[in-house]
Specification:
The protein is α+β, with helices and mostly antiparallel strands. It contains seven helices and ten strands.
Length: about 250
């Protein structure tokens, strides 16, 4: 693949990543520090541009411009609670019968803001220990950039393949393809003693309710037994409530 670097030494990788880190903090009007409290789409655009310049000599943006009908879209997702990032190619057929593509990279902003907060533990992304949120963001962006590069060159991408792992290792020094950012599930368990399956109680319109946690994302989904409720696969009937996790109190059984 002539468009991508064959190999970067560990020293070169470290220097380029440090350049990107420092430049983003200098250029972003929002971040302020490595453990930023807010992040926007514009910050991702700045970050992508810095990586494209430092590691690819502008090839990524140029390749997208040649293959897609629009520039690469970058957005912060508030709803992604499992993946650290996602790279997508959208394809549509025009009236002339020709396919037209556009590309998007989405980054899980909520997961980043949950990490390096009140859950104190080491954070490893792509096999590399991260020092702060910006460091973790860089690893995620690097991972998504490899997805984008594979789509541009081969039209398909998968981080489970040897090709992906080899490219990520050669360009960015990655040793793995996974992340262990703090998730809403983990924070709920560590900070509030609540997890999926927990029996909990909460106050709702002046009434004390007792139910079981069925799901945790931005809020907890709690199923409360109710005769006229919806029937679930366990045979029971329940009313569904969406409750902020701090409002839940674990029930000892």
């Amino acid at each position: 693949m002539e468009q991508l670097p064959v190999h970067n030494s560990a020293e070169v990788v470290a220097a380029k990543k440090a350049t990107v880190y420092e430049a983003l903090l200098r250029l972003s009007p929002r971040l302020g520090s490595g453990n930023f409290a807010a992040i926007g789409d514009g910050d991702l655009a700045l970050l992508f541009g810095l990586y494209d310049r430092e590691f690819f000599d502008g090839w990524l943006a140029s390749a997208v411009a040649k293959q897609a009908e629009k520039p690469l879209a970058l957005r912060v997702s508030a709803t992604m609670t499992r993946s650290g990032g996602k790279t997508t190619r959208f394809r549509r057929r025009g009236r002339d019968g020709q396919f037209r593509d556009r590309y998007e990279i989405a980054i899980a902003g909520r997961l980043l803001l949950l990490t390096f907060g009140d859950v104190d533990r080491p954070v490893v992304v792509c096999g590399l220990t991260c020092r702060d949120r910006l460091d973790a963001l860089q690893r995620i962006m690097e991972h998504e950039i490899i997805h984008l590069a594979e789509l541009l060159v081969w039209g398909s991408t998968s981080c489970s393949t040897r090709r992906f792992k080899n490219i990520a290792g050669r360009i960015f020094g990655h040793a793995d393809t996974k992340h262990d950012l703090v998730t809403p599930h983990e924070r709920a368990s560590v900070q509030h003693g609540v997890s999926v399956g927990s029996q909990v109680e909460f106050d709702f319109n002046g009434r004390q309710m007792v139910g079981r946690v069925n799901r945790i994302s931005q809020r907890a989904t709690v199923l409360v037994p109710a005769e006229a409720g919806r029937r679930y696969t366990d045979g029971g009937t329940y009313d569904k409530y969406y409750i902020p996790v701090p409002m839940l109190r674990p029930v000892c059984t």
